[in-house]
Amino acid sequence: MAIATDHNEETVMAKLSQPYAGPLSHDITALAPILVDLAPGSLRGLRAEQPGLHEVLAELTKSLPIFGDAAGVGPQLHQELTTCNDNLARIRAAQSVVAKWREVLDESYAYYAHEREVVIGQVADAVKSSARRKDTSLLAPFEKTVAYNSQVGLRAAKTRKKNADAAIADGASEE
Q1: Is the dihedral of CA 34, 35, 37, 42 positive or negative?
Q2: Residue 27 domain-assigned (yes or no)
Q3: Superkingdom of the source (predicted)?
Q4: 128 and 15 Cβ atoms separated by less than 8 Å
Q5: Quick one: which of 28, 34, 76, 146 has the fewest CB in 10 Å?
Q6: Is 132 domain-assigned?
Q7: Can you give the residue range of the structural domain that contains 87?
Q8: What region does 47 belong to: left with phi over 0, alpha with psi -120 to 50, or beta?
C-alpha cells in the first residue's frame, strides 16, 4: 500500500517494499536459565571474541581431551568451555531472529513514517491550493499542518542562502 504524491514515487515505493515473510514468533523460554541481565556499564572490560577464535576452539577440542591432564587443565575447564560454546550457539541463533525483527521493524517504521509525511504533504498542498483558488480562510484551520509541511523547504532555502552568501564572501576575500 504505497501512498504517494505522484505515480513515479508510488511505483518506486511499491518495488522497494514487500511483505515480511519470516517468522513472527520465536520462543526463547528454553534460554531463560542462561540469559543474564547485566547492570548498566557492566559490559565495559568484558573480554570479547578475537580473530583466530575458530582455530583455537578446534585446537582445544582436539587437544584438551588428550593432553589436558598433562597440561594441568582438568576436565571441569573442558566442560565449562563446551557449555559456553553451546550457550553461545543457542543465543546466537535467537539473536539472528531478533536482529531480523529489529531490521524489519525499523524499516516498517521508516516506511510508514514516510507514507504519513506524504499524506500530510498532500493535505497541505490541497489546502494551499484551495486557499489560493477559493478561500484564504481555509489556511487558518490547517495552519500547523501547512507550517509543518513547509519546514523542510524553509530549511533548505535557508541553507542555500547561507551557502550563496558564503560563496560571495569567499569570492570577495580572494580579490
Answers
A1: positive
A2: no
A3: Bacteria
A4: no
A5: 76
A6: yes
A7: 73-174
A8: beta
Number of structural domains (the chain) is: 1
3 pLDDT band (50/70/90 cuts)?
Answer: very low
Count Cα neighbours of 161 within 13 Å in the Cβ-side half-sphere: 6
Using CB atoms within 10 Å of the CB of residue 120, give its burial: 0 to 12 exposed, 13 to 18 middle, 19+ buried. middle
- Ramachandran bin of 19, using left for φ above 0, alpha for ψ from -120 to 50, beta for the remaining angles: beta
User: pLDDT: is 174 or 64 the higher one?
Assistant: 64
Instruction: Give backbone dihedrals phi and psi of 45, rounded to 5 degrees, phi first.
Output: 90, -10
Residue with the bigger pLDDT between 68 and 10: it is 68
The pTM (predicted TM-score) of the whole model is 0.68
- Please, are residues 93 and 111 in contact by the beta-carbon 8 Å criterion? no
Domain assignment of residue 22, yes or no: no
* Residue (of 21, 27, 2) closest to 13 by Cα position: 2
Dihedral class, residue 33 (left if φ above 0, else alpha if ψ from -120 to 50, else beta): alpha
pLDDT tens-digit readout, 74-119: 999 999 999 999 999 999 999 999 999 999 999 999 999 999 999 9
Cell of 121: 504533504
Residue 37 is given by DSSP the state: -
Q: How far apart are CA 2 and CA 119, in angstroms?
A: 11
